[in-house]
């Protein structure tokens, strides 16, 4: 049990308890005031999601499917495969420039497969535009209506009040069993830690008991040092600065796009990333689009990535068309900035 007190290691046990309490306080401060329990786990987001799925396996022994609105990111897909489940990919629907959750497809798939054969719905908040956070509230209502667990991948959502509000509202109107967030993306610490949190104290304890054996204290120590040095006011200041920086990035990217006869995609529901069309380049050839990506990379522009049309990627035996664009046929190639 990763959260159990170790009699022979009083210091690290105390450190662990203090860290979990501080992190719980930060989650409340960031926009989920009704969260009841959380713990730091020394694994990144993907493996932490796997731990959640394996805990649910004991509660739902007949289940073999996980309903998953598509997001083109490998680790969250592999987290379901590693846990031994079959992901049921729900394609997103295009609304204006935005890619949004297809709620009708989710509900019809639940009815088709039967609630007992579904382990959970695995939704996502933080993501790259033009995909926007899933309709977490509506998915939470579907989960509550059909008695299906709901796990939320909130990888870098703690820094966004919008993402946290979606989780809070989802838990209020429907069902959210656990939400997982990355330590390095939200707390500026080294890679390799995550927070598993939820609204049912006993279920979060069950997840912590599923972890086999002891674990490294490094992620807990890193986040403890960071939060003690920042304090709640310091963390709130960083959240405010990020919001202001995002507005500045948006306005400057819009100016840049106009200079080159491109446009900033209209994605108001995505509070974390932006996308700019690359139609001028893609008209010449796809190679020009990927060349721009490599040029940015070699010039140490780390916050941007180029998404060409028609990429095909196989992940754990499943083929994704239009990979990185979160849909088979997005209308244009684009540049992401976050």
Automatic annotation (TrEMBL):
Role, per record: Converts O-phosphoseryl-tRNA(Sec) to selenocysteinyl-tRNA(Sec) required for selenoprotein biosynthesis.
The keyword RNA-binding is annotated on this UniProt entry: yes
Annotated keywords: Protein biosynthesis, Pyridoxal phosphate, RNA-binding, Selenium, Transferase, tRNA-binding
UniProt cofactor(s): pyridoxal 5'-phosphate
EC number per UniProt: 2.9.1.2
InterPro entries assigned to the protein according to its UniProt record, in alphabetical order: PyrdxlP-dep_Trfase, PyrdxlP-dep_Trfase_major, Sec-tRNA_Se_transferase, SepSecS/SepCysS
One Gene Ontology MF term: O-phosphoseryl-tRNA(Sec) selenium transferase activity
Organism: Mustela putorius furo
Pathway stated in the Swiss-Prot or TrEMBL entry: Aminoacyl-tRNA biosynthesis; selenocysteinyl-tRNA(Sec) biosynthesis; selenocysteinyl-tRNA(Sec) from L-seryl-tRNA(Sec) (archaeal/eukaryal route): step 2/2
Protein name: O-phosphoseryl-tRNA(Sec) selenium transferase
Domain of life: Eukaryota
Pfam families, per database record: SepSecS
One GO term of the biological process aspect: conversion of seryl-tRNAsec to selenocys-tRNAsec
Record keyword Isomerase present: no
NCBIfam families to which the protein is assigned, alphabetical: selenium_SpcS
Catalysed reaction, written as an equation: O-phospho-L-seryl-tRNA(Sec) + selenophosphate + H2O = L-selenocysteinyl-tRNA(Sec) + 2 phosphate
Subunit structure: Homotetramer formed by a catalytic dimer and a non-catalytic dimer serving as a binding platform that orients tRNASec for catalysis. Each tetramer binds the CCA ends of two tRNAs which point to the active sites of the catalytic dimer.
């Amino acid at each position: 049990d990763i959260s159990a007190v170790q009699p022979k290691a009083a210091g690290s046990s105390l450190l662990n308890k203090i860290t979990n309490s501080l992190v719980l306080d930060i989650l409340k401060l960031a926009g989920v005031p009704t969260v009841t329990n959380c713990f730091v786990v020394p694994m990144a987001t993907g493996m932490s999601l796997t731990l959640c799925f394996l805990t649910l396996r004991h509660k739902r022994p007949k289940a073999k499917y996980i309903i998953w609105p598509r997001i083109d990111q490998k680790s969250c897909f592999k987290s379901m495969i590693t846990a031994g489940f079959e992901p049921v990919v729900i394609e997103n629907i295009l609304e204006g420039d935005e890619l949004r959750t297809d709620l009708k497809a989710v509900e019809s798939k639940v009815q088709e497969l039967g609630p007992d054969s579904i382990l959970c719905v695995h939704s996502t908040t933080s993501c790259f535009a033009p995909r926007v956070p899933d309709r977490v509230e509506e998915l939470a209502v579907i989960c509550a209506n059909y008695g299906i667990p709901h796990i939320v991948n909130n990888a870098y959502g703690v820094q966004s009040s919008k993402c946290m509000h979606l989780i809070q509202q989802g838990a209020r109107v429907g069902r959210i069993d656990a939400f997982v967030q990355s330590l390095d993306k939200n707390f500026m610490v080294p890679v390799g830690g995550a927070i598993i949190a939820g609204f049912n104290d006993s279920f979060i304890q069950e997840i912590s008991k599923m972890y086999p054996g002891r674990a490294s204290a490094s992620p807990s120590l890193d986040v403890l040092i960071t939060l003690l040095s920042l304090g709640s006011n310091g963390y709130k200041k960083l959240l405010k600065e990020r919001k202001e920086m995002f507005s500045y990035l948006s306005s400057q990217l819009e100016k840049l796009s106009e200079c080159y006869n491109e446009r900033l995609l209209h994605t108001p529901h995505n509070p974390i990333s932006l996308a700019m069309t690359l139609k001028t380049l893609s008209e010449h050839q796809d190679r020009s689009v990927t060349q721009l990506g490599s040029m940015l990379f070699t010039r140490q522009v780390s916050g941007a990535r180029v998404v060409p049309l028609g990429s095909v990627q196989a992940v754990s035996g499943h083929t994704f068309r239009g990979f990185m664009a979160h849909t088979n046929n997005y209308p244009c190639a684009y540049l992401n900035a976050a």
